[in-house]
Amino acid sequence: MIALNYGCNVFKFPGFVNLDINPANNPDRVMDITKIKDFYAQNSVDLIHAGHFFEHISWDAGKQLMKDSRDILRPYAPIIITVPDYKKTVLQNETDSNAERIIFGGGEHQTLYSLSRLEELAKQAGFRIYTELELERNPWLILPAGINPKPETWQTSFIAIKS
C-alpha cells in the first residue's frame, strides 16, 4: 500500500510516505509536491493526505496538483484535504486581526479556500465523488498518541474519491 502525506511539515504519519519540500522537516522524501507525477505512476497510490498544504500553492498549481493526484490514485482511492476555510474563519473569529492571521498564515498562504472552492477543484480535476468530511471523522484519529493534527472548527476537511 502506498499512502502519501503531502507537505508533512512536522506531522509525519507512520505507514505513509511523508513528503515535504523543506529538508529541515526531515520528511521521507524531499520533493516539490507539484511535480508528484514525476515520482508516482498512474493508478499507483492508495491514499493521499494533504493537511494544510493546498493553501500554500497558487490556485493554478492546486488545480494541476488535484488533477495529477487523481491520476496517480488507484480507482476508488481517496484524497483527504484539510485547509483553513476563509468563510468559517471570518464567521467564527471575533476579531478581524485573528481571522486575518489564520487566513493569510503570516504571508505563507497563497490561495483562499472554502468548501465550495474545494468542490470546484475536485470537479475540475475529474472527481465525481467528493464531500466535506466531518471533523471528528478524519483519519488522524487512528494515529498514534503524540501525532494529533486534528483540525479546528475554522478549517474544512474534504474527501474526494477517484471513481
Please describe what this structure looks like.
The chain starts with a strand and ends with a strand. The protein has 163 residues and is of the alpha/beta class. The protein has helices spanning 59-72, 86-92, 96-104, 115-125; strands spanning 3-5, 17-20, 29-30, 47-51, 78-84, 129-133, 155-161. The relative contact order is 0.18.
Strand line-up in the sheet with most strands: 3-2-1-4-5-7-6
**Computed structural class:** alpha/beta
Mind describing the biggest β-sheet?
A: 7 strands, mixed
> What Rg is obtained from the alpha carbons, in whole angstroms?
15 Å
Distance between the termini: 18 Å
- CATH-assigned homologous superfamily: Vaccinia Virus protein VP39
Helix content: 25-40%
Short recap of the structure:
With 163 residues, the chain is an alpha/beta fold. It contains 4 helices and 7 strands, in the order ββββαβαααββ.
Question: Could you give the topology of this structure?
Answer:
Layout (H helix, E strand, L loop, with lengths): L2 E3 L11 E4 L8 E2 L16 E5 L7 H14 L5 E7 L1 H7 L3 H9 L10 H11 L3 E5 L21 E7 L2
Parallel strand pairs: 1-2, 1-4, 2-3, 4-5
Antiparallel strand pairs: 5-7, 6-7
Helix pairs in contact: 1-4, 2-3
Tag the structure with descriptive keywords:
163 residues, alpha/beta, Rossmann fold, 7-stranded mixed beta sheet, 7 strands, globular
